[in-house]
Design brief:
Helix content: 25-40%
Structural class: alpha+beta
CATH superfamily of the largest domain: Creatinase/methionine aminopeptidase superfamily
Shape: elongated
Radius of gyration: 22 Å
CATH architecture of the largest domain: Alpha-Beta Complex
Strand content: 15-25%
Number of domains: 2
CATH topology of the largest domain: Creatine Amidinohydrolase
Strand order of the largest sheet: 4-3-2-1-5-6
Order of helices and strands: HEHEEHEHEHEHHHEEEHHEEEEEEEE
Length: about 400
């Protein structure tokens, strides 16, 4: 017996489809063909392998290769059919009464080059246009339905943080604690997957790192990296043993029903170094000021500059959001179905905040050879600024 579950309510899908159709019409694009897994789930309610065709008006058509029966049960869309090959899409569209598309919007930020050329051949009489920015802008503003799921994910993040004092022991390795916390996360319903859009980016649950190990840089677009278990991963927890009187970073996501919460807390077995205690307090001040200033209409790049200025005034510019020439140039990021959604609180960004956007704000200090301090909470933009969905105490937890 199979236990299939509807992915997204019909009315929610209809609203999303209409927003996409409005974006297509504004650019004089006849249609969209959605392929990327996260976008496919967002607009169809299923992540089964297939192709979602969305005309600029009228009903969308979901064509599924594998698994059709499951997609049919999971998606609330009215038109779901089985299809063995994308080469047959033009024939199916004609058979279903759709006019031959003259232009097709696709997710060219993530579409592999070979697949792009394949679809150029399939739709030889149509132009293919990038609509990835339009899709990401639609997804950036969350509905009440999405925010409710993210609130539940945030509650689970808080429960992970509350579990940490039971797991932390002097002499345990980072990877051992990570395994224990991740096993607990699965009992709470963590989906395991942490989806990211940026090419080459990957994350497994998150990072638990202690002392100087937490300040080891990596390729990841993150202020912290960690040594990992080998050069093949080169990030996250490794075999470093946790010691007393040093900071322990717990930067973990929680994935629930597709949606993510991002959450960082600092722990210490005994008293951590004074310089990190002081740095942590400064990060909390930066977070709290940014929460108040992040009103609808605030330009994301301006919020970044505000946080950078505060870090500089407090004497932390050298170690704020990383150390060295290649430290990251953002202080927060949107999140939802993916960990790296719009808006980015980053240098040069011009996107204005809107009510309903969800943002992980993460002011952090990284001191090489010593450790890290800082905070990360998942927020929703409201008329009064950022409302934190994560509630566990922001102060360093001293065990």
């Amino acid at each position: 017996m199979y236990f299939y579950k509807k992915g997204v309510p019909e009315e929610e899908l209809n609203i999303r489809i209409r927003k996409l159709q409005s974006a297509l019409a504004a650019k004089n694009i006849n249609s969209a063909l959605i392929i990327q897994k996260t976008d496919l789930f967002y607009f169809s309610g299923t992540i089964q392998q297939g192709w979602l065709y969305v005309p600029d008006h009228g009903e969308p058509l979901l064509m599924v290769f594998k698994d059709f029966k499951r997609a049919e049960a999971e998606s609330a869309l009215n038109s779901v059919i089985s299809l063995v090959s994308p080469k047959k899409i033009p024939h199916i569209l004609n058979e279903k009464g759709y006019p031959a598309p003259e232009s097709i919007g696709m997710e060219l930020d993530v579409l592999p080059a070979n697949m792009y050329f394949q679809f150029k051949k399939i739709f030889s009489d149509a132009s293919i246009t990038d609509i990835s920015i339009d899709i990401r802008l639609i997804r950036a503003v969350k509905s009440d339905y999405e925010i409710e799921i993210m609130k539940k994910a945030a509650e689970m993040s808080d429960r992970l943080a509350a579990k940490m004092p039971e797991l932390l022991e002097d002499g345990k390795t980072e990877i051992q604690v990570a395994g224990e916390l991740e096993a607990y996360a699965r009992t709470l319903g963590h989906q395991g997957f942490v989806r990211m859009r940026l090419w080459g980016s990957e994350l497994f649950y998150g990072h638990i790192m202690s002392g100087a190990s937490a300040a080891v840089p990596s390729y990841l677009s993150s202020p912290t990296g960690g040594s990992g278990t080998s050069p093949a991963t080169a990030q996250g927890p490794g075999f470093n043993k946790i010691k007393k009187n040093e900071t322990i970073l717990v930067d973990y996501t929680f994935g629930l029903d597709g949606y993510l919460s991002d959450h960082t807390r600092i722990f210490s077995i005994g008293q951590p170094p004074d310089k990190l205690l002081e740095a942590h307090e400064a990060m909390l001040e930066i977070q709290n000021t940014a929460r108040q200033k992040a009103l609808p209409g605030m330009v994301s790049g301006n919020l970044y500059e505000l946080m950078m200025k505060m870090a500089d005034e407090k004497g932390y510019s050298k170690y704020f959001m990383g150390a060295g020439e290649r430290k990251i140039r953002f202080t927060g990021h949107g999140l939802g179905l993916e960990l790296d959604e719009f808006p980015f609180i980053a240098k040069g960004q011009t996107l204005a905040l809107e009510k309903g956007m969800t943002i992980a704000l993460e002011p952090k200090i990284v001191m090489p050879g010593i450790g890290v301090a800082g905070i990360e909470n998942t927020h929703v933009v409201t008329d009064n600024g950022l409302e934190s969905l994560t509630k566990f105490q922001d102060d360093i937890v001293i065990i």
